[in-house]
Design goal:
By secondary structure, this protein is of the alpha+beta class. The protein is 36% helix and 21% strand. It starts with a helix and ends with a strand.
């Protein structure tokens, strides 16, 4: 029987949240992708895992629209394997991942994978130099037929469906230029046809390795894929474990690590940090009210992680180069823990090149 605290400790260790220093090559979360959403996105997620910001340039990292259509960072050297790993497994899988775009395609007799290939071919032909997303979308609207397009009421205009656009970009060999808003797309230098992902970048294995123990349902929810597809691609080298009475699975090679204790560490996790992306939210935050506070519909805060437990939320406020961080503890934090939080806030301010004005604890 495995308990919740052991699961949390396992994930802290697997995601290297307790280490002081690391490199891009040995940073495990880059195998599954590091979501780069918001100012405290991918770069900060790497920083809290000990990666020096000086080595996270575009020469070393590539930003792609991948899982759930969100922007994720990967090692540039791994881009071909990543492209293979994030591709839908089947037409049904592709249909689930592109959401409402699948309905008009089906009505027109167009397969979902074929549609992604069509959009990718057009993207490859259009983006011969860096282009802003809106300009690319406008060009696509003029060359794609009606089943690929939808009327957007807020814009009072017709656009390509968003998810086929995003998921086809990797198939077209396109990356996003980091730090651009609106996004700028450009060709990935030297991109060729993917020849396979291998075990390291297989998304099911990566989820189990970094967010296990888990069920096929957890992995499917993370990928926006059908559960039956995840089951069909379930690794043979998994073992069943019981977590607080529930059947789950983990890679056999990681079973022994489930019994280890977590290392002491205090971290400020960004709102979309991988640790918070696990699809068993009740495991991370058993209290429903606290979970609602951490994962609101809009405007997520960051989370305070102390010794393997989520103990509160944090939000930054900026005015020019000045920054204040508000911390909402969920329990009484002793002075030593507060000092650890303040040290991490100072680290965040240095990462942002901001002047820290203060840290407000809302007790």
């Amino acid at each position: 029987m495995i308990n919740r605290r052991q699961v949390m400790a396992f994930r802290v260790q697997a995601q290297q949240l307790a280490r002081a220093r690391g490199s891009l090559s040995d940073t495990a979360v880059l195998d599954i992708g590091v979501q780069d959403t918001g100012p405290d996105g991918g770069g900060w997620a790497l920083a809290v895992r000990g990666v020096d910001a000086a080595v996270t340039s575009e020469d070393d990292l590539v930003l792609l629209w991948t899982v759930r259509g969100a922007p994720h960072l990967y090692r540039r050297a791994d881009v071909a394997a990543v492209a293979a790993a994030v591709a839908p497994w089947s037409d049904a899988d592709a249909g689930k991942r592109i959401y409402d775009a699948a309905k008009p395609l089906k009505a027109a007799g167009i397969g979902n994978l074929a549609a992604l290939d069509t959009v990718a071919a057009q993207l490859r032909a259009i983006v011969t130099e860096p282009m802003v997303k809106g300009d690319v979308s406008g060009r696509l609207n003029s060359v794609l037929p009606e089943p690929y397009l939808r009327f957007c009421r807020p814009c009072n205009a017709t656009h390509i469906f968003e998810m086929p656009f995003r998921l086809a970009a990797v198939r077209a060999g396109l990356e996003l230029r980091r730090g651009t808003s609106p996004p700028v797309l450009r060709r990935i230098p030297g991109f060729g046809a993917p020849d396979g992902a291998g075990d390291r970048f297989d998304l099911v294995r990566a989820y189990l390795r970094l967010l296990g123990p888990a069920t096929p349902g957890h992995v499917a929810a993370y990928l926006d894929a059908p559960v039956r597809e995840v089951r069909a691609h379930w690794p043979a080298d998994t073992v069943e474990v019981t977590v607080d009475g529930e059947r789950r699975w983990i890679l056999a090679a990681d079973e022994q690590a489930l019994g280890s204790s977590g290392a002491a560490a205090t971290r400020l996790l960004g709102p979309f940090d991988l640790f918070l992306q696990a699809r068993d939210r009740a495991m991370l935050v058993p209290d429903a009210a606290r979970a609602k506070e951490l994962w609101p519909v809009l405007g997520r805060p960051g989370a305070v992680l102390v010794d393997g437990e989520l103990v509160g939320t944090w939000r930054p406020r900026t005015s020019g180069a000045r920054m204040t961080v508000t911390v909402q503890p969920w329990q009484e934090l002793p002075e030593s823990r507060r000092r650890g939080v303040v040290e991490q806030v100072e680290r965040l301010a240095a990462y942002r090149a901001a002047t820290l004005v203060g840290v407000d604890f809302l007790d």
